[in-house]
Design a protein that fits this description.
Largest sheet: 11 strands, mixed
Number of helices: 15
Distance between the termini: 50 Å
Strand content: 15-25%
Number of strands: 21
Helix content: 10-25%
Mean pLDDT: 93
Structural class: alpha+beta
Length: about 575
Amino acid sequence: MKAFRSLLIGTVAAAAFATNAYAARGTDGEVKIIYWQAPSILTPYLSGGTKDVEASSLILEPLMRYDEKGNLVPFLTQEIPTVANGGVSQDLKTITYKLKPDIKWSDGSAFTADDVVFTWQYCADPAGGCAQLAKFEGVENVEAVDAHTVKITFKEPKPNPYLPFNGAQSPIIQKAQFEKCRGANASSCTDANFGPIGTGPFRVTSFRPNDVVTLEANPNYRDPDKPAFATVTLKGGGDAAAAGRAVLETGEFDYAWNLQLAPDVLSKMAAAGKGKPIAAFGSLVERLEMNMTDPDPALGEERSTAKHPHPILSDLNVRKALSMAIDRQLLVDVGYGQAGRPTCNLVPAPELYASPNTDCIKQDVEGAKKLLDEAGWKPGPDGVRVKDGRRFHLLYQTSVNAVRQDFQALIKQWWADVGVEAELKTVDASVFFGGDAGSPDTFQKFYADVEMYANNFDGTDPEAYLAEHTCSKAPRPETQWQGENINRFCNADYDKLVAELGKTADLEKRGEIGRKLNEMLTKESYVVVPLVDRGRVSAHSNTLGGVVLNTWDSELWNTADWFRVK
């Protein structure tokens, strides 16, 4: 208990923000940002896609953020609540935030505790399909003690009470704007979802989904001298190579996000001298998700739902064999070089939560064949395995990206080597990672057998991230196809262990439980097949100052401190 309180409750860390080399708000003109995965919506509550979370973070803010070292930093609160300062109760069942006074929304209205309470009510509504529900795991009530005081009560003692309202995935939305957008109305509130009113450094002036967002400095931002830039253009679409060239070679843009490029390609771009790549490791893992439900179109609205188990992938040995056939080190060499490392973990960091499991690293083609033989899948005349008249055919989808297409091609060949036929599908990243309930191609809807992508979690504690895989969080029609349990994994023992993690204080014990949960998803069930622990690689122009790459929050977390180098 003491160890955990010392780390998460009793210790207050401060971020070292860059000093701005400007004198007044809006004096540095325009900053141009390029995200090759274009944002499709400007609220993280209706999209689990990183690109939407990051775009939203220019506008919407949480109570506290995580800095580049993973430390909590107050943004809308006066201080970090702890047991020592009375903000966290001795029984660890409540946490109370004191909001900074006189904060205004970008429309000039007052930001109050009622907005925080409403944000919880909005996400907790079961008909709304909140994409960040795991952030509110264990919350019993959120109440406004007064206009500037918010109290969160948990159902049980919560040693890590900082999940709700902290980090880019859990910002505060304005009650007045979203009040009529709760529940089933959430996805239809286009004006609010495309133009949220926020407390952040910028406000939306126009938004073309899957294309471009234009913003201007928030005239009501709490620091009168920030932001330095008068306007922001966030351009989306294209591919990682074009984004990299736009910053590193042509200088057309100031910042390029997530340069998922082969090492030699990136180094050639950097040689042009217009900008510099920046990189850091965090918790970003490229993985395969195995669909535990049947995506057969003949099932209509019931496809990819728990009503119909997957006819092939429900077999553990089949999933394990697919993993064994993969050469992860070659994937790293081809796709990432020093910016990647092979992994068997969904949670590769911090070290406390990373399992020592390395069983998957070495490719084992013969072992994979043996498992498939034992599972009853016998090679047919053309080499593709067959069982009970069914051909071993998988639809394998991912977003459009050169590295991901290289991975698809390699994995398709390795699976062919063990008798598995893979059909490859690529989807534009803006659509794949979007939250459109009407689209058949989102990663949440998962109308395929296997899909590949990467994501990570806010901060350095994976509690909410691991809680995403509990049974109730599977996307389905009743939740507007929103939900964090992408592969529809459902295990009562897993759910119980998540609950235990939520009330465990001892740090070593938390690590033990976290590692066990990780292994239940990977080593024991193979519903998640990790491939590469990816370093985050982005780039900024030589004339953009104040950039601090952050792998524990939004990369745009400190845009209020960006400035033009004179």
